[in-house]
Amino acid sequence: MLLLFCLAYVVPGFVGREPWKNADITAFGYMFELVRGTTSWLAPTLVGQPLEFDALLPYWLGAWAMQLAPAWMAPDFAARLPFVMLLVLTLFATWYGVYSLARSPQAQPVPFAFGGEASPTDYARAMADGGLLALIACLGLAQLSHETTPALAQVAFTSLGFYAMAALPRRPAMAGLWLFMGMAGLALSGAPAMAMLFSAGGLVISLLDGDARSDASRTTPWIAAAILAAALLATMVLAWWLDLWRWRISPERDWRALGRLLLWFTWPAWPLALWTIWRWRRQLGSRHVALPLWFVLVSVVTTAVTPSSDRSLLLGLPALATLAAFALPTLGRSVAALIDWFTLLFFSGCAFVIWVIWVSMQTGVPAKPAANVAKLAPGFEPSFSALAFVAAVAATLAWAWLVKWRTGRHRAVIWKSLVLPAGGAALSWLLLMTLWLPVLDFARSYTPVVNAVMRHIDRPGCVEVFGLTRAQLAAFRYHGNLEMRPAGWQGACHWLLVASALQPSMASALDTSGWQLVSIIRRPVDKDDNVLLYRKADSR
After folding, report:
1. 176: pLDDT confidence band, cut at 50, 70 and 90?
2. In the chain, what are the domain boundaries?
3. Model confidence over 71-92: pLDDT tens digits?
4. Is 438 exposed, middle or buried (0-12, 13-18, 19+ CB in 10 A)?
5. What average pLDDT does the segment 292-302 reach?
6. Beta strand residue intervals within 419-538, DSSP E
7. Could you tell me which of 519, 521, 520, 513 has the C-alpha nearest to residue 537?
8. Rounded distance, CA 179 to CA 199, Å?
9. What own/partner pairs with CB < 8 Å and gap ≥ 24 does 262-266 have?
10. Contacts of 35 (CB under 8 A, 6+ apart)
11. Cα 98 to Cα 321: distance, rounded to the nearest angstrom
């Protein structure tokens, strides 16, 4: 059942859509350039623009997948396949990370006076189930984990490194291999500094690990520390060799916006994590608390000092879910009931709204939601998909069964308080990616803009560009099959695309005397993405 639940969460969002703005289409644009052979594999560029993030491995994975894919498979879908595996890796590594920490002697519950308590293995499995449910329930995971961007690779390799550090005292050889892979992958995915910080913290925690010292049948903390020190050194050498060191510190922060991000992005794991820290405050040095707490602190501090706040905070979600899992044995009935009722009302309301708006788009009844969609996405034509409808109905019925199961009388399980949050988050995501996928694809894809431009260009060819973003360049390159050149290029380009926001500065940046405005291409849902199409006066 848990595997089916994970499958229902992973697949929607990867299937049946176009590359979306901004990070998704931008990353795919660099992968597409690698496949075309127009850029270097060690320093990818897109129309002369270098990578925004110094990551290499995520782009290699997408490009390799496109090269190996059969001819009938769309390149953008082929590029997503390794990222599907990265999300699966995130979920599995989180489960095994919680399981390994829950097997620690200090994480085990106090034995009953007359026996009857759960075995260490059963207890650890139940805690791991709770940690996985807490991760899926986090609201910030849904969108970013279904994009083909370095952020997903970073959270996957962070999860792998977290699991490896958790399992080092019990399985040093295998965990050491996973540790090297996780930290190297994290460095190659654009976060070498975080890989070093994670490894350094794990090294200190291993040296102070009381659980490892008290368990004579396991390896000593010195062996674990030696493996962590080797991984730290290897990460430093790899990042230096490939020149991956870049500091992106943002001194000015909107602390109110950051606070809002922390509240909703990590919901509902953060209240449970705080409860864990309070209830286990006398054992903060124990590995099952100290290790996830260190990962969370590194992620939160990085979020506060770097521009990409949400993508930095994403790396802390597996560890935050681990802390949330260790709150479950100490939750009272009143707290669990509050979580259940709030989750039931919130996600049932979300599902109701999604269904009402979809019915309105299909039938026009009620009229107000359909009118709002037409206003926000002018030009969108609703369509019906039987497969999407069946999947949405099945998910809604599964939610109703889950609510009935949770409110019924059954054998008590330790993860019961996280069933509805995780199920509600998965339900809302699945409904959005089935019922609302056509309108979301229309609103977040650049396909309408590219199609409008191509209606004016008689045949694909050379086009000069001025002021276009990386996302726009990738869209015109992929959807329009256009050869893009920087404005002012000494060649025979007969067309020029200009970002509408930069039109006032266009005259001072390049010679416009030979260009004639053909059309203003408006993006239906975002006026900031409008482009101007020019043609050379002598190219008729």
Report:
1. very high
2. 93-105+119-330, 333-444, 447-536
3. 999 999 999 999 999 999 999 9
4. buried
5. 96
6. 462-466, 483-486, 495-499, 515-521, 531-536
7. 513
8. 9
9. 262/300, 262/303, 262/313, 264/139, 264/140, 265/138, 265/139, 265/140, 265/310, 265/313, 266/138, 266/139, 266/140, 266/313, 266/316, 266/317, 266/320
10. 63, 66, 67, 75
11. 9
Give the distance, in angstroms, between the CA of residue 238 and the centroid of all CA atoms in the same chain.
25
Q: Which residues of 88-99 are buried (b: 16+ CB within 10 A; e: fewer)?
A: ebbbbbbbbbbb
Q: State both tokens at 263.
A: 């509240």
Geometric angle at alpha carbon 96, from 95 and 98, rounded to 5°: 70
Q: Six-digit token pair at 417?
A: 């308080």
Determine whether 82 is exposed, middle or buried from the number of CB atoms within 10 Å of its CB (0-12, 13-18, 19+): buried
What would the DSSP string read from start to end of 213-241?
HH-TTS--HHHHHHHHHHHHHHHHHHHHH
Using a 10 angstrom Cβ sphere, with 0-12 exposed, 13-18 middle and 19 or more buried, the burial of residue 386 is exposed
What residues form DSSP beta bridges with 45? 50
Q: What CATH code would you report for 447-536? A: 3.40.190
Alpha-carbon distances, residue 306 vs 27, 59, 179, 303 (angstroms): 20, 22, 25, 6
The pLDDT of 223-243, averaged and rounded, is 87
The most distant pair of C-alpha atoms in the chain lies apart, rounded to whole Å, by 94
Cα gap 510→476, rounded to integer Å: 22
- Under DSSP, is residue 344 helix (H, G, I), strand (E, B) or coil? helix
The whole-number average pLDDT for the span 105-127 is 75
Question: In a 3-state reduction of DSSP, which class is residue 382?
Answer: coil
In one letter, which amino acid is 101? L
User: Which residue do the tokens 């597996």 mark?
Assistant: 318
Instruction: Tell me how far apart the alpha carbons of residues 352 and 259 are, in angstroms, rounded to a whole number.
Output: 29
Closest CA to 324 of 106, 124, 127: 127
> What is the distance between the alpha carbons of residues 331 and 321, in angstroms, rounded to a whole number?
15
Mean pLDDT for the chain overall: 89
Share of the chain above pLDDT 90, in %: 63
Global confidence as pTM: 0.94
Instruction: Please report the pLDDT score of residue 402 as a whole number.
Output: 92
Is 538 a residue whose pLDDT tops 90? Answer: no
Count CB-CB contacts under 10 A for residue 213.
12
Structure tokens at 49: 């623009």
What value does the mean pLDDT take over residues 452-475?
A: 88
